[in-house]
């Protein structure tokens, strides 16, 4: 197994030699940061320079080309100005899922709050809802589409982390920390994500269950975090009929209401 921290320290030295004091932050994120990586997992790097130009990208690429396991390197790079202007709903996850190697990421970001987390949930739930509907109706057989949902279940885990942040004020750093904090269908979503590689046969036998679990849950999230409390639209009639037949219990606790964090968001900085 690649020693990701050793790899990152080598990258830090090379970037400092290339960019000098212009390097503002370097961090490791993703599965290698969480201790959930396989041998072939990406090495997810977060890099922030004082500014970023095409010439900087060329130089950065040349540095990466000198690194071992170059084919596994990926990640996020930007200038500090762009990071300050970045959509706020994406920043809490970036901050929480990044282990600093050099610099302090929080000093480069606007102060996060609970509304940012709720915005992330609204946007992610809408995208997830649309993806499931689109895959079921237009993407081939349900079995084929269920097999392509790995990324969707990954996004659902990030959403569960943000939901837990709103409920408890704390962001679980990985799946192991999140597992005891969820129950019912939320736990089922997390468990399926954790055991994805061992459940191929289950997805082939019950593809609609894998699709519609995400559909129902994303619908519930949209309703719970709607800023005006308006219910989300009904599913497509065919999807709704199939979903109702599964007779799934509610996925979000009844006591989780938008007002729980709305009343506190002005004074609470998470």
List the helices and strands and how they pair.
Elements: H1 4-19, E1 23-29, H2 31-34, E2 43-49, H3 54-64, E3 73-79, H4 80-84, H5 91-96, E4 98-102, H6 114-138, H7 142-147, H8 150-168, H9 175-178, H10 184-194, H11 200-205, H12 207-224, H13 237-246, H14 258-262
Helix pairs in contact: 1-3, 6-8, 6-12, 8-10, 12-13
List keywords for this structure.
14 helices, 4-stranded mixed β-sheet, alpha+beta, 270 residues
Overview of this structure, please?
The chain has 270 residues and is an alpha+beta fold. It is built from 14 helices and 4 strands. It has a 4-stranded mixed beta sheet. Helix 3 links the parallel strand 2 and strand 3 (73-79). Helix 6 runs antiparallel to helix 8, helix 8 (150-168) crosses helix 10 (184-194) and helix 12 packs across helix 13 (237-246). The protein is globular and about 55 Å long. The two termini are 35 Å apart.
Number of helices: 14
Shape descriptor: globular
The ordered H/E elements are: HEHEHEHHEHHHHHHHHH
Ends distance: 35 Å
Q: Spans with pLDDT under 50 lasting ≥5 residues?
A: 229-236, 248-253, 256-270
Helix content: 40-55%
- Share of residues in strands: 5-15%
The total strand number stands at 4
Q: Which strand order do you get reading across the main beta sheet? A: 3-2-1-4
Structural class: alpha+beta
Mean pLDDT: 88
Cα gyration radius (Å) = 20 Å
Largest sheet: 4 strands, mixed
In short:
The chain is of the alpha+beta class and 270 residues long. The chain has 14 helices and four strands.
């Amino acid at each position: 197994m690649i020693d990701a921290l050793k790899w990152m320290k080598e990258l830090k030295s090379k970037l400092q030699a290339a960019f000098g004091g212009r390097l503002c932050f370097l961090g490791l994120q993703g599965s290698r940061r969480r201790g959930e990586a396989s041998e072939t997992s990406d090495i997810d790097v977060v890099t922030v320079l004082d500014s970023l130009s095409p010439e900087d990208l060329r130089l950065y690429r040349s540095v990466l080309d000198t690194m071992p396991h170059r084919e596994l390197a990926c990640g996020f790079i930007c200038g500090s100005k762009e990071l300050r202007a970045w959509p706020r709903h994406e920043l809490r996850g970036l901050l929480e899922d990044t282990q600093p190697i050099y610099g302090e990421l929080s000093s480069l970001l606007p102060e996060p709050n609970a509304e940012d987390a709720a915005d992330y949930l609204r946007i992610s739930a809408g995208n997830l809802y649309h993806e499931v509907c689109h895959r079921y109706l237009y993407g081939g057989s349900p079995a084929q589409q269920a097999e392509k949902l790995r990324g969707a279940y990954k996004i659902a885990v990030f959403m569960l982390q943000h939901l837990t942040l709103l409920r408890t004020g704390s962001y679980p750093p990985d799946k192991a920390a999140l597992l005891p904090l969820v129950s019912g269908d939320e736990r089922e979503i997390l468990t399926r994500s954790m055991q994805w590689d061992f459940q191929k046969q289950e997805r082939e036998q019950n593809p609609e269950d894998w699709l519609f679990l995400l559909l129902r849950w994303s619908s519930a999230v949209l309703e719970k975090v709607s800023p005006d409390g308006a219910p989300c639209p009904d599913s497509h009639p065919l999807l709704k009929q199939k979903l109702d037949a599964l007779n799934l219990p509610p996925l979000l606790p009844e006591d989780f209401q938008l007002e729980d964090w709305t009343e506190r968001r002005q004074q609470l900085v998470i």
